[in-house]
Amino acid sequence: MNLVRYAPHLRATLALGLPLVGSHLARMAIHVADTVMMGWYGVTELASLVIAVSFFNILFFLGMGFGIGVMGLIAAAIARGDEVEVRRSARMALWLSLGFAVLVLPVMWHSGPILLAIGQAPEVAQLAQDYLRIEGFGLIAVLCQLTLNSYLAAMERPQVVLWITLAGLPLVIALNWVLIFGNMGAPELGVRGAAIAAVAVQCLQLLAIVAYAAWLPAARKYHLFQRFWRPDWGGMRRVFLLGMPIGLTMLAEGGLFVGSNVMMGWIGTRELAAHGIALQLASLTFMLHLGMSNAATVRIGQAKGRGDAAWMRDAAVTVTAVSAVCALLAVAGFELFPRQLVGLYLDATHPETPALVDLAARLLFYAGLFQLMDAMQVIGLGLLRGVQDTRVPMVIAGISYWLIGIPVAYGLAFPAGIGSAGLWLGLVAGLSCAAALLMRRFWLGLRRGDWTRAPQPV
Fold it and tell me: 417-441 pLDDT, tens per residue?
């Protein structure tokens, strides 16, 4: 690789991508803090939180397409100097994100019967519903945050969002300590306390990001919040057609992992708790690649706006290489220090801790197997979103995760009798298929010149 040629791309990718990585990590850290502190509280409560967060994430994945999809639209519009398109796309993405969150709130409120119907233990389902009835309101704040984050990232202004999201972590830890365990005279609320803490912090973070987006001098010319109530039906349709396939793609991928949680619950509560720890550690490393994927969307969108195929190629090579290096470092950490990583989630004095550590540490071996493939599939998605290609990736995701990943996981875990390890091997199979097909589509399209010809399919 010609380092002189790629050095400007590397600097720009890291300058944009690292704050986005930090923002995703900080946002996820709220649920990580819940999981760690619930692991100290009790095994049944931890298992219920794993299922509740999985349920929350399914709806979050479906609704986040509008916020993620608008990133490429805004980046391309800024590159063209189209201020009207920037405003209408961002505003309608906020409308769609808000509307979706309100629409699915009743699903969270009545989640208990759904969890029972998919085979979860009654005590786990009840505690999970208690959590979701509160955290459902947090979905409104989280989806609007994500959309504003995309708006600011497309303007290459993600740094303040990082600090806002980071500031929420110590606050949620403090609130968890008070509300989960009943410290400082507060009632001991368990999983409900974790949900209250999460919603409070998510709402405060949203208010701070709204204030920053309204204040930012570089953004004032877009007048995002001026006459916010006025609809733009053409803009809404465009964002919907671009974002809904992204949401369904995220749902397909998220459903692969949630499906593994459900099937792990069939094996046992202890196995589900261990699986949740291993999966959350893998999800933390995934945030690195998701941030780089967002950076890819912005930079490829800029190239598309200018019609610059050579610049697009170099930007894509750079972000792919950065993500691959991060994946290899994650593999090393999982394989060398599994017990130490798992131990962070558990109370060493609890009698069930040694068995949970053994289970989760074994699962981290399989988490290491799919790190590189997980990185490449999400980078492939980010590259394709930058050129506003979302429908075919949706089909690829559905095939990879639901026709390959889930059947392989079930077949290995139950008919083949491999158990929890078989579920994780199914994850590896689904992610590997998606990575190969998505990367092939982007690079073949670039070679043919598809991505710098207008118009591109939504």
Answer: 898 889 989 999 999 999 999 999 9
